[in-house]
Amino acid sequence: MSLAVAILALAMLVLLHEAGHFFTARAVGMRPRKFYVGFPPAIAKVSRGGIEYGIGAIPLGGYVKIPGMHRPAPSDVDLHLGRAAQESAAVADAAERMKAQLGAGEMERAAAVLPELEAAVGGAALTPLAQRGAERGLTELDDGLGTDAYWRGRTWRKVAVILAGPAANFLVAIVLFTVLLMQGTHQIGVRLTAGEAGAATTTIEAVLAGSPAERAGVQPGDRIVAVDGRAVTASTLLERIQSSGGAPISLTVRRPGEGEVVLDPVRAREVDGRTLPQAVGRSFEITGTVAKSVAGFFPRLVQGEGRKEVSSPVGITDASAQALDRGVEDFLFVVGLISLSLALLNLLPLLPLDGGHIAFSIVEGVRRRAIGREVYERVSIIGIAVVLFLFVIGLSNDVGRISS
Fold first, then answer.
1. CB of 330 closer than 8 Å to CB of 235
2. What is the DSSP secondary structure assignment for residue 307, as one 8-state letter?
């Protein structure tokens, strides 16, 4: 059950990401053609206002089709209508006229040729494969040559549409962190040291003056190994303290030079949750910490470090399921971290990630003309290679962790 909930949570984060793109595109006049819950092919769909809404057969995330992400090119005609052109001389003639106009950058004239190409395809006796390819090509050309095509939009509109996806994930993270930080809790008054990549440990960095921990004899450098005789880890220590409800608990620490020491019983004190402004402020602090960690990860990876920090969707889902087993609060905090990481990673300036599209949109705005699809495709190869590289490393790490 925990695994199913974790998968659903990850799918919802992806769906909210796509919803950000969808609603912003509509708001700025780029009418999306499709919005799916899950990925196509569709198992159910309906059209409303020229937009196809559907449920995809692959039940993960969502899918949005924004028209004309790239300026149409002659290669698009060859890709989709090449087979139809081989089977029909009329289609071949119209396709050549379309390619000539696209190659010359005459988009309005290309739009005028489109009805001729549609008529040629409609009147030709094509094989099913050629027919499907031609129909797909006509749809793509119609979207790309339309006045609401993405590539035609002003820079701020294009950036807003693409940025809305990561922004939706960022907002989810801030909301989850804020809600959790406003909840009351029980604490003993210690600050724990941070391990690799900022992960929590059970080692005491500092003891607050006048706190229950100080009265019990906790010292900086102690490592808490058990609560009430039961072993704890970094992930279960805080939960054990908070669930005590203020009842006496016994801490066992491993102290340098002394070994294990059982301390006097201590009562965790109840701490009110933060106010809304305080919680929001702390949420942004957490966001800044995670952003610094993500920014510093890639230099470490290039230097041969940080490989073990990479995780694939398999590991992310497994970690979420484990957090849910520990409690709803742990689960929601992990979901917030995943949502934030999803936003930050998507902002990397690599195609086909959102950050790459934003970077190209800004370059196009400075140049005052669209960049050709072939350039997008060449640069995308690099981005896809990086993403696949990280996926393979993450999957390898996850398989090793889970199997051990």
1. yes
2. G
Q: Which two tokens stand for residue 376?
A: 């997008």
Report the distance separating Cα 31 and Cα 34, nearest Å.
9
Q: What pLDDT does 314 receive?
A: 67
CATH number of 185-271: 2.30.42.10
Q: Does residue 62 surpass a pLDDT of 70?
A: yes
**Residue ranges covered by each domain of the chain:** 74-145, 185-271
In 10 A of CB 123, how many CB atoms? 11
pTM: 0.76
The pLDDT value recorded for residue 200 is 61
- For residues 380 and 391, give the distance between their C-alpha atoms in angstroms, rounded to a whole number: 16
Rg (CA), the chain: 28
For residue 198, what pLDDT is reported? 43
What is the DSSP track for 15-74? Answer: HHHHHHHHHHHHHTT---SEEEEEEEEEEEEEEETTEEEEEEEEEEEEEEE-TTSSB--H
